[in-house]
Amino acid sequence: MQSQPRFEKLSVARATSPTGIASPRARMMVVTLFALTAAIVFMNRSHADTGLVRVQAAAESPKDAAKSPAASSPTTAALDAESMLSAIVRVKMRAVPGARSSSTLGPERNGSGVIIDAQGHILTIGYIVNEADSIEVTGGDNKTVPALLVAYDHATGIGLLRATLPLKGTPLPLGQSAALAIREPVMILPAGGRESASVAYVMSRRSFAGGWEYFVDNAIFTAPPTMNWSGAALVNREGKLVGIGSLLVRDTMQPGSPLPGNMFVPIDVVQPILAELIQNGKRSGPQQPWLGMSTEESQGRLFGTRVSPEGPADKAGIRRGDIVLGVGADTVQNLEEFYRKVWAIGPAGAEVSIRVLQGPQLKEIRIRSIDRNDYFREKSST
């Protein structure tokens, strides 16, 4: 069972390929990735002629595949697939007693992670490992080892782990998510081996605002959806990591246009802070102010859907059901406006004035923000 923020679960069938992939270059990209998928499907078998013929047939079906590397060298494709899959681990976490995130995410969570270096560092999505008491990671060889939480960067949503014992896996190199084109084929690799791997398409690149005080620029939206999205690797045609799986969403093309799929955190927002996360456990500089209130957009208004118990908003008097009208003297109508105006006031610790409609009363409530990391509970050092 995947662990994720509470979203409506979607019952979706495996969609056919989106239209619009017509150019020879695009077709070759599809061929290469489908060849790689075929290699993954058959990689558990020996490199007998039958397996290789099937991989080669998958690569050579379109005419444009004649010059494809996958078509000319199916053995290499199979080896690349095996190497990529070895970088994917299953992440299992148990939260600390009394974890504040357990009410929404549960006390036990599962997902995927990606080995990114020889030191055993693993990228995953942060909500899986928030407030962890214990973490285990299981490689493709079914060997399970303990892991430590190195960092959870709330601004990007990325979690960073380190395996305490060696894992048998080849680190997946980091790519450039900015280079992804719309309708470009990509691979989604969650834990679970060849059966879980799938091909998808980049449907859009746009900002994403989550109701839990989360915003990311240039998020990657893909379709068709995978049901094993939490922490899954998004891999480009070069076999490089370009995103980490975050959510199942209803509208991958544009807001309001239903086409189910997944949202991935782009690797480009992680790379500039990765060295800091590894060395210091957090990014340098001031931290974003956090209010502890979840909101939802509806018809040009922001409705309060949840207030974190004992958080800044709760202590200041914000209540579930409040309608957020503005920040200071500025009116806000959507999540992005709301967050940008709050974060522009100052770093964590800044006082934020929120105008809300609370029942029939119009109120201005002053909230003393905090660093989100200070709210969540850490594992005891004793």
Helix count equals: 8
Strand order of the largest sheet: 1-2-3-6-5-4
Q: For the record, what CATH class of the largest domain applies?
A: Mainly Beta
Overall outline: globular
Please give the alpha-carbon distance between the first and last residues. 31 Å
Topology at a glance:
Blueprint (H helix, E strand, L loop, with lengths): L23 H19 L6 H12 L8 H4 L1 H13 L1 E8 L6 H4 L2 E8 L5 E5 L6 E7 L5 E10 L4 E6 L21 E5 L8 E13 L3 E10 L9 E3 L5 E9 L11 E6 L4 H10 L8 E2 L2 E6 L2 E7 L4 H5 L6 E5 L2 E2 L3 H11 L5 E8 L2 E8 L1 E2 L11
Antiparallel strand pairs: 1-2, 1-4, 2-3, 3-6, 4-5, 5-6, 7-8, 7-10, 8-9, 9-12, 10-11, 11-12, 13-20, 14-15, 15-16, 16-17, 16-18, 18-19
